[in-house]
Design the sequence.
């Protein structure tokens, strides 16, 4: 397939008319590319915008939405039809209050920015343009076109701010611990999440796949989503005893009432089956592992583990190459912050904020891995706001370390003088776009462009055009752009920036939509990198393939591409340990493809625990559990210090070689299934951590206890051999295995 390389004639920054040159931080390339290749953007489409604002600007925005300052700088934005979710508005108000009370506020302006999301119609784009001020407002993502058929109703904000619960100072007394979960397919009617036959422990439930259509469950419109309180769920449990499917139908989660937003169809134009129609769902299993109890035999624990649950849109699980998940995670965190604050005031007579642990078993392969992506900044903001100067154990985000150790999705090349070429294998029958991200180390803000990148399609033997900073480079065949390189510069604290190139290509097979879409050839593509002029010193450059697999239950259309370096050797497993000459986590000596640096790219921010996996029978690391990267070259002077030493700790993901996974409930009560992956390690840690905090302990004491057991060689219940590369694979050590189900070993 022959094509031509040219710099984009149109602005690649979506219909808001902001371009890479004037504001290089204005878009996430994955979402913009998704808009283009699916032809989703129309003149009447609304876009999600993710903003980072100074505290003063954030307060002005809230005042404008409340109708107090419509004459101010945000007035045109509001009158033009921009909308904000009620929970996001309230969460931003709480974050502003916490930031103003922070006695240890950081001097760098980037550290003080607060994030939020707006739904913006075309008429408000120009108002956003006028607000772009690097010192006060940064548009980090001109997000998805949601294609609303009709505008959601404006929301009155004046009375929507909940009183902020008192934040405990010093140690937290014994108290209930709120367990929040963000996951796909959560069976909230399952008996494992009840106090009694008609009384749920799910205090609040939000589904971001459902919008606007009234149901019998008393749903509240959450701006392209719907939520329910415990009493709504209780009423349905009493109305439909012993019939959980009827409960889900009444809520609109399955059946004819399901109103997915935006509409999602498969190749035949039909809606995919909702997760709760399946016998096993990821979210139900994870929530049971974290906070499931038998209400008939474990009464003491039931009142101490209230639950807040959020389901992201089906699109987020269906397409894992990042168009939907960042927005879903940020909206979920805003909502959880507000509902946890309300729940604290409801449960505690003295209004003291209850400890909160959030489980999120979603992972990302590509990203800056430095704590400064938009999602990581919002996670850190969420944790910091809920703690509000209180002890660290007041709020913790627990995430899975990822299962990508052997995916060949991470590479490191050193650029000095010569051109370097890295093979990228793109598979046939891939019905979704594929992405690679290239990240350079942090440099002073005024550093000129350091490298340039070219992409060679299969069969092309010489590099084509090379990328230029702040420009988008297109590969066009016929009348369609088939591939694009976004060359950007992203701001970092301490007056630094990071240069990054995102490579986006179309699908290799049409997805079966009524209008055929252009495709690209499958096969071996090549990424060519060379320096721009003479470098002061060699540059270590990280490359990551973005996630594109179909997911645990196979609803997606993607197939995972990978780096196909001939020097890479497949792992030989002996007792689950890699064996070969050279470093234990890098095969082939000169291979660029690595197993180091494969951790979940969402998990590098402050307040996050990353949990790896190990096998219970012999203590070996799980063969898929991702690795950190000990690499001091990525450190910089000043406050910018990314996580480098691997996950925080490890929990069981396999009982034995013959008994993979761990047991928890299926979708419906009474069923038991086994699932594996670091997804189950995270909720196991949530359960152990909740028990520790409820008894007056902390995250630090839990980690210290694990580390002491490892160092003494007396891990509880087992005499495991010493760890190999412990910081990289298993952090401080292995959490003892304890769930509410009997071990099969």
Sequence:
């Amino acid at each position: 397939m022959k094509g031509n390389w040219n710099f984009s004639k149109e602005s690649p920054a979506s219909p808001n008319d902001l371009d890479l040159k004037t504001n290089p931080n204005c878009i996430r390339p994955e979402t913009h590319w998704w808009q283009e290749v699916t032809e989703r953007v129309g003149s009447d489409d609304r876009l999600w915008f993710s903003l980072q604002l100074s505290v003063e600007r954030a307060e002005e925005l809230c005042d404008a939405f409340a109708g107090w300052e419509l004459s101010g700088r945000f007035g045109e934005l509001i009158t033009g039809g921009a909308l904000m979710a009620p929970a996001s508005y309230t969460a931003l108000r709480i974050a502003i209050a916490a930031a103003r009370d922070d006695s240890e506020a950081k001097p760098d302006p980037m550290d003080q920015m607060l994030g939020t999301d707006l739904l913006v119609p075309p008429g408000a784009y120009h108002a956003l343009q006028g607000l772009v001020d690097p010192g006060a407002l940064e548009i980090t993502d001109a997000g998805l076109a949601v294609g609303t058929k009709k505008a959601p109703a404006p929301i009155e904000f004046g009375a929507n701010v909940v009183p902020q619960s008192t934040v405990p100072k010093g140690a937290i007394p014994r108290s209930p611990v709120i367990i929040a979960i963000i996951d796909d397919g959560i069976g909230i009617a399952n008996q494992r999440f009840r106090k009694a036959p008609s009384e749920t422990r799910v205090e609040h439930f939000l589904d971001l796949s459902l919008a606007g259509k009234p149901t019998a469950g008393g749903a509240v419109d959450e701006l392209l989503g719907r939520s329910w309180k415990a009493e709504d769920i209780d009423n349905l449990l009493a109305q439909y005893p012993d019939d959980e499917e009827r409960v889900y139908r009444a809520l609109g989660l399955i059946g004819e009432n399901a109103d997915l937003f935006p509409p999602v169809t498969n190749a035949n134009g039909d809606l995919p089956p909702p997760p709760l129609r399946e016998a096993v769902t990821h979210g139900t299993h994870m929530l049971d592992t974290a906070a499931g109890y038998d209400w008939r035999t474990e009464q003491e624990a039931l009142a101490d583990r209230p639950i807040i649950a959020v389901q992201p849109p089906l699109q987020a699980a269906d397409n894992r190459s990042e168009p939907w998940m960042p927005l879903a995670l940020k909206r979920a965190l805003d909502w959880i912050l507000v509902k946890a604050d309300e729940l604290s005031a409801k449960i505690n007579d003295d209004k003291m904020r209850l400890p909160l642990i959030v489980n999120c078993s979603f992972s990302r392969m590509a990203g800056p891995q430095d704590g400064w992506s938009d999602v990581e900044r919002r996670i850190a903001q969420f944790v910091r706001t809920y703690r509000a100067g209180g002890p660290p154990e007041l709020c913790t985000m627990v995430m899975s370390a990822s299962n990508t150790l052997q995916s060949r999705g991470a590479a490191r090349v050193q650029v000095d003088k010569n051109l370097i070429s890295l093979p990228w294998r793109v598979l046939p029958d891939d019905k979704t776009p594929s992405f690679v991200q290239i990240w350079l180390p942090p440099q002073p803000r005024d550093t000129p462009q350091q490298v340039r990148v070219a992409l060679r399609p299969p069969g092309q033997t010489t590099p084509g055009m090379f990328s230029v900073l702040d420009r988008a480079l297109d590969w066009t065949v016929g009348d369609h752009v088939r591939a694009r390189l976004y060359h950007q510069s992203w701001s970092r604290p301490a007056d630094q920036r990071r240069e990054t190139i995102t490579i986006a290509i179309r699908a290799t097979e049409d997805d079966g939509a009524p209008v055929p879409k252009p495709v690209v050839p499958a096969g071996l593509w090549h990424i060519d990198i060379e320096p721009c002029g003479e470098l002061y010193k060699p540059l270590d450059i990280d490359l990551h393939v973005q996630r594109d697999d179909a997911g645990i239950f196979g609803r997606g259309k993607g197939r995972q591409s990978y780096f196909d370096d001939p020097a890479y050797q497949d792992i030989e497993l002996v007792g689950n340990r890699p064996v070969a000459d050279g470093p234990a986590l890098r095969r082939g000596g000169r291979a660029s493809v690595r197993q180091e640096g494969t951790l979940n790219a969402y998990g590098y921010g402050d307040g996050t625990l990353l949990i790896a996996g190990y096998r219970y029978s012999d203590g070996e690391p799980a063969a898929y559990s991702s690795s950190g990267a000990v690499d001091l070259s990525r450190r910089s002077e000043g406050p910018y210090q990314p996580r480098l030493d691997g996950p925080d700790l490890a929990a069981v993901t396999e009982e034995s070689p013959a008994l993979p996974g761990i047991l928890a409930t299926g979708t419906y009560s009474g069923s038991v299934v086994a699932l594996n992956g670091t997804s189950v390690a995270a909720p196991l840690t949530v359960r152990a951590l909740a028990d520790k905090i409820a008894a007056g302990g902390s995250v630090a004491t839990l980690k210290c206890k694990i580390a002491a057991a490892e160092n003494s060689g007396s891990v509880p219940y087992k005499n495991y051999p010493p760890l190999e590369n412990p910081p990289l694979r298993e952090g401080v050590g292995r959490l003892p295995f304890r769930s509410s189900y009997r071990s099969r070993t």
User: Anything to note?
Assistant: The first strand starts at residue 4 and ends at 7.
